[in-house]
Amino acid sequence: MNDRNERVRVLFSFPLRLGADRICGIAWQQVNGLAAAGAHVVAFPASVCRPVHPSVRVSPTLARGKLRVPYKILGTMRAVAWHDHVVARRLSGLAGQIDIIHTWPLGALETLKTAKRMRIPTVLERCNAHTGFAMEVVQKECERLGVTLPPDHEHAYNAEKLHREEEEYRLATRLLCPSEFVVNTFLDRGYPREQLSRHIYGYDEKVYYPSHQPRDPKPGLTMISVGVCAVRKGLHYALEAWLKSPASKDGTFLIAGEFLPAYQEKLAPMLAHPSVKVLGHRNDVPELMRNSDILVLPSIEEGFGLVITEAMGSGCVPLASDACTEICGHMNTGLVHHVGDVEALTQHITMLHEDRALLERLRGASLRAAPEVTWTAAGRILLDVYRETIAAHRATMIPESRSDREAVGIK
User: Fold this and answer.
1) Same domain, 163 and 238
2) Handedness of CA 356, 357, 362, 366 (dihedral sign)
3) What is the rounded average pLDDT for all residues in the chain?
4) Which of 37-41, 124-128, 130-134, 155-159 has the weakest average pLDDT?
5) In whole angstroms, how far apart are CA 343 and each of 139, 197, 245?
6) What is the C-alpha to C-alpha distance for residues 37 and 25, in angstroms, rounded to an integer?
7) Does any domain span residue 147?
8) Among 152, 181, 283, 357, which one is most buried in terms of CB atoms within 10 A?
9) In a domain, 367, yes or no
10) Residue 157 belongs to a domain with what CATH number?
11) What's the domain range around 379?
12) What is the pLDDT of residue 216?
């Protein structure tokens, strides 16, 4: 698609509850960002949790009014497959009305097959690394720690799930990768680079913004971890580094998020330290970030690290592993360590504890960079990926010779 004024018509298929927590919130922001960027969006979510942009036409697949299909009773795999079947069936009646289809993992196989028959280009969201890679590294780390994941845990090894997702990878025109880390996990498994498209996630600047109050010149640092407290997020590395740093003597480490019980039990001795405050699930994360000095995200596997952009917008300096988004630039908008390098993370915490001028410089750089990673910016970037995908797809569909063109009815 070469004409940037041509309005892209996208079918956005999401197999879960649009607007709920975690990836459901990401999908909701994408739909709104696309509409704000000028795309014509038809959304087929399983159900809807909160209203979307008024220009978006929404037609749930597994809900009618306030009635929703109960995933817990049906089972997630069967529910998302049902969603996929409904979308594929609807798609058959939309010939000539859709330019591109945006799908999400596990709920896309039948839709992707139908789109291929109809010659409609597709993109498949990759909110995490290649699923095989993610399962392997998380399992290895769990074994090292002596933590057993529940069989239904999203990162527990599941051959059926992996097979289905790899089939989806194969069928999609492009895989949407929110970081270079994700790209590399696919390149390492033989996927062609031309199938891997870069985009980003973002943050809501109306929710995440810096405090206008002067910082309390207290001697201790406040470090925060936000999100599900799971092995893949590397919280054990953060705790170890914090307790090794002199920052733990007069500082505070806030942990906002729900724990996997076996993981919490394993970390109990470190969690009992007086400088560590386990807050559980919180609804005041933006305020917590505004009042914290640094955010820590030492993930061993990640898709993007959404909390990094939220921290940047809040004036909270991110300390992240190199499995997270490259938006956190080392000694620029934050500090970056290699996955599992506790010594480096300890050094980074100590550095900011001892050098408040460096902390302020990094905070200022983060705030200046933050407008480039809002959900509005992410919507424009995603729409550009659509345009590039559509143009590349059309180029492969147009025969070069006149006779070839006439053979498929192109004048």
Assistant:
1) no
2) positive
3) 92
4) 155-159
5) 23, 34, 10
6) 18
7) yes
8) 181
9) yes
10) 3.40.50.2000
11) 9-202+375-407
12) 67
